[in-house]
Design goal:
265 residues, alpha+beta, Ribonucleotide Reductase Protein R1, domain 1, five-stranded antiparallel β-sheet, extended
């Protein structure tokens, strides 16, 4: 059977149209699915941002109340605050009772390392090295070490600034993985100033708050049961236009000690 040239061309054109239609349909479906996923992602991001804003707002409210009422308000925590459609519970941060590695002195560090099994000289050496890593100068302490002592590991040389995390402590010369694992559960960068117990004789609600630090924890639970937290460390001042500032935000979950026996290297 002979097919006229015109019919062959029409058949080819029809096949091309069908093929193009199928291709365009596939592209359209892909675009619709991509747009749908983007909308879902954007909605999820928006909810997350709203939740974070609510948590931070609750922290701001409680910190401001502490600055105005005084340390007596800390003793009244936790408090429940409704903000941005969220019910947020604000309490003292879990790290309030830990040693803040940006505020501790040589004696506190040395005492911790002795408790973890180090001998006195080793404990004092490590304490001096931590202070050298954290301070702003390049002058080594008697048992410490600045950049020159890290020639074999320059990437770990002292930053001469506050620690941003407890994990950074692993850079300090002489801090073995085992010793860090022993010490980490007792350390934080979100530690507050020790506060007097409300019922104790040393408690004075009107005591000057300049330099006082309080670790705060905001927590909210969604209808699905998911729990979300935000921790902040506020430092307070008296008689100033800015009564407090946030020193740090971060994770204040307590670590479980993983050290077996003494903590020596």
């Amino acid at each position: 059977m002979n097919v006229a040239p015109g019919e062959t061309e029409r058949g080819s054109a029809l096949l091309l149209v069908v093929w193009m239609s199928a291709l365009m349909a596939a592209i359209l479906i892909g675009v619709i699915m991509l747009a749908h996923n983007q909308v879902r992602a954007t909605a999820g991001d928006r909810v997350a941002l709203q939740r974070e804003a609510a948590l931070q707002s609750a922290l701001e409210i409680v910190a401001f109340d502490i600055s105005q009422i005084g340390r007596s308000h800390v003793a009244q925590l936790p408090v429940q605050i409704d903000v941005g459609g969220y019910s947020v519970r604000v309490s003292q941060g879990r790290t309030q009772v830990l040693i803040d590695i940006n505020m501790a002195n040589e004696q506190q560090f040395a005492a911790l390392f002795r408790q973890l099994g180090h001998d006195d000289l080793g404990a004092r050496t490590l304490a001096d090295r931590i202070m050298d890593w954290r301070d702003s100068d390049q002058t080594p302490r008697a048992l410490g070490g600045e950049s020159e002592a890290y020639s074999a590991r320059p990437a770990s040389a002292p930053r001469n600034r506050p620690f941003v995390s407890v994990e950074e402590l692993q850079h300090v010369l002489g801090m073995s993985p085992r010793l860090w694992a022993c010490a980490a559960p007792y350390l934080t960068v979100l530690g507050g100033t020790p506060l007097p117990v409300r019922e104790s004789g040393s408690f004075e609600a009107t005591t000057d708050e300049t330099g006082m630090r309080v670790a705060l924890l905001a927590r909210t639970i969604t209808v699905s049961g998911a729990q979300h937290e935000m921790a902040g460390l506020a430092e307070f001042r008296s008689a100033t236009e800015v009564p407090f500032e946030w020193v740090a935000f971060g994770d204040d979950r307590l670590r479980t000690p993983t050290c077996l026996g003494g903590g020596g290297a």
